[in-house]
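A reminder before we start the practical. When you read a complex entry, don't treat the lines as separate problems. The point of joint prediction is that each chain is placed relative to the others, so the output describes one connected object in space. Small molecules and nucleic acid strands, if listed, are placed in the same frame. In the example below there are two entries. Take a minute to note the order of the lines before looking further.
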Amino acid sequence: WVRGPPKSPRNSSRGDPACGRRAVPGK
Amino acid sequence: VLGGAPATETRWPWQVSVHYAGFHVCGGSIVDEYWVLSAAHCFHRDKSLETFDLYVGLTNLKAARNHTQWFEVNQVILHPSYQMYHPIGGDVALVQLKSRITFSDAVLPVCLAPADLNLTGLACWATGWGLISQQGHSSEELQEARLPLIPIAMCRLLYGHRSYIMQDMLCAGDIWNWKTVCEGDSGGPLVCEINETWLQIGIVSWGRGCAQPMYPGVYARVSHFSRWIRYHIQVVPTPPQPTPALSPALPSTLSVLVAMLVSLSAL
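Here is the predicted structure of the whole assembly.
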């Protein structure tokens, strides 16, 4: 049975945003 | 939220609306690209996972915007203490989505409060689409309210029985201005800002009514569960993604090939 693809590493090069940081107003 | 105000768009980018059978039933918060944090009582009693839908990037329940995303549930992990001691304590659920959230200015994860966080003097906010009046009125607009934290000893006094408020809970509510969370806010976040970073310290869990200010809202204390939450996010595999379907396109591909062969043979 399929367990799914391996998890990608945290903070990968896809550029996940930092948690808890709102976008800069006016951005 | 009783005594709150409508939230502006993108102000609470981690807010999630949990729908069941097409209706908003609970809140939640984005903690990872595949994971939403919510309350266990939103998902128990043999509810069918297929009937849940989760929405992110939403402020008005009736108006999806271009940054609104919809998700199906892959699995729900309830905290073991909720399953053991229900209905007292452990009111935490981790919801794994079938597909990945795309982050944007309007859709972002919140940070989890660390175990050693000092809560004294923090400015904290609760958000949700729950009831906005004791008469049972609800709002389609996401509501926000700034709520003072209430020391656990004071909360135990207010509730009048020591065992109601356990160590894995915290209390918040503005008992002077009648601001608190209510039915439909469950599972939603209680967040506080520290050094321009928003930390989730609570998950809306329960309370004795909503309109009695002497009974503040009771929340699952996130710092009590943060290790358990992080562990599952790290070790649980991402859901299997559907493979690209070949069969529907096959007949048309074959017919093109046949047509090409026929035309080639005619030359």
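Discuss with your neighbour: Chain A touches chain B through 17 residues (CB under 8 Å). What might explain this?
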